[in-house]
Amino acid sequence: MIEEKIVKSIKLVKKGDQSAFEEIVEHFQGKVFAICFRMVGNKHEAEDIAQEAFIRAYINIQSYDENRKFATWLYRIATNLAIDRMRKKKPDYYLDAEIQGGEGLTLYSQIPDDNRLPEDEVESLETQSYIQKEIMALPAKYRSIIALRFIDELSLKEISEILEIPVGTVKTRIHRGREALRKKLRNV
Amino acid sequence: MNCNEEVVELMHQYLDGDLASNDEEKLRSHLNSCEDCQQHFRELKQTVALVTANIDLQPSQDFTMKVMNGLPKETKRTTVKR
């Protein structure tokens, strides 16, 4: 079982075996990265935050209580970092940042594309970037909840623990976020 | 039932796996008779599917390596005594 392996790795890391942390990073990087991406909407930044989250998790591993789910502990570190980043956010000019007044154009689309993708792949990439754009249009407090709920399908209670807000608030924000997205995504 | 609020609330509870069974019956029978709500419900389910769909998003290949290189050096074992 992969979960048992992870539990074992965590124990080893706690005992000071740094190399055992590699397995943990391998196992959780996709989810942590995706959650950060949903929150900040930018791959470079999401990767930066996700890396920082793992490093902080390593440094603070002694404070992780093994009776609780490791994923929620890790996601809490990651979402806190992402929330901090969103607060401090100044305009950034990354390749996939939107150009003002460009109607959804990104710098990527201005770079000539020599290796063409199959049509369905283009479509799904476009759909994905449209979905992300609509998520980014939501207030930040909704984005973290949408990220946690729809990337790792966490329970309302787990989300409430990660974000330290009451379950009732989580519910309301999921409902409102889902309604807002429904109006935007119904024609996809 | 008031389509605009009560039913929509039930739909969300359903999607959260949070709906009591008698309410589920209430929602089901309402959906059977109301096309607008059926449509609303379909759209919500589609939204969930779109947002949940395993996004083809992976961090870069060297992600793990970068994290491992960014960790503080192991304290006990690598301390050099002078």
UniProtKB/TrEMBL annotation, chain A:
Q: Which UniProt keywords apply?
A: DNA-binding, Sigma factor, Transcription, Transcription regulation
Which residues does the UniProt record annotate as the domain RNA polymerase sigma factor 70 region 4 type? Answer: 130-181
Q: Superkingdom, according to UniProt?
A: Bacteria
SUPFAM superfamilies according to UniProt = Sigma2 domain of RNA polymerase sigma factors (SSF88946), Sigma3 and sigma4 domains of RNA polymerase sigma factors (SSF88659)
Q: Where is the RNA polymerase sigma-70 region domain?
A: 24-90
Q: Which family does it belong to?
A: Belongs to the sigma-70 factor family. ECF subfamily.
What protein name is recorded for this chain?
RNA polymerase sigma factor
